[in-house]
Amino acid sequence: MDPFAFSIQMEKDAEALYRKMADNTPAAGVKKVLLLLAEDEVKHRKAIEQLQKRMNVEPQEGVALDIKTVFDEMKQDKDFTSLSEDAVEDYRKAVEIEKRGIAFYQEKFAEATDPTSKKLFEALMKQESYHLRTCESLLDMVQKPEWWVENAEFNPRDNNEY
What we know:
The chain is an all-alpha fold. It has one domain: Ferritin, core subunit, four-helix bundle (Ferritin, Up-down Bundle), CATH 1.20.1260.10. 74% of the residues lie in helices and 0% in strands. It has helices at residues 3-24, 28-52, 64-76, 88-111, 115-143, 145-151. The longest helix has 29 residues, at 115-143. The two termini are 32 Å apart. This is Rubrerythrin. Residues 6-138 form the Rubrerythrin diiron-binding domain.
C-alpha cells in the first residue's frame, strides 16, 4: 500500500475510534479528551494529505496541554470512577493504534530526504507519543480509577509531547 494512503487511513481509523469511544462514554471529561484526540487525528490527516500533494506543511500544535487541563479537572471529580469496564477493549485498541502510528512515523522519518517531510514526521511522532500516553492513562482510569486519582501524572513539556 502507498505510504500516504496507509498513513491517511491510519489517521481516519484513529479518529473514528476516538469519536466512537466519546459517543459511548458517560463521563464528560473523558468525552472531551477523546474528542480532542479525534481532532488531532484530523489535523494529522490533513497535514499528510498536504505533504502528499507536495505542498509545504507546517506541523500544528497538538492538544497535550488541553488534555492535561481536562485530566486535572477530572481528578477533582470523583464521578468518573463509575466508568464502565466495557470500554477496556476500545482503550486497548487505541493504545495499539498509537503504537503502530509511532512506529510508522519513525520509519517514515528515517526514510525522508526532504526537510518538510522530516519536520512533519518528527512532529507526528511526538504527538502520537502523547496520544499513546493519554490512551494508556485512560485505560488505567477505567481499570483502576482509585489508583488513577492518586497516582496519574500528566506533565507535557509542550503541546506536542511529554
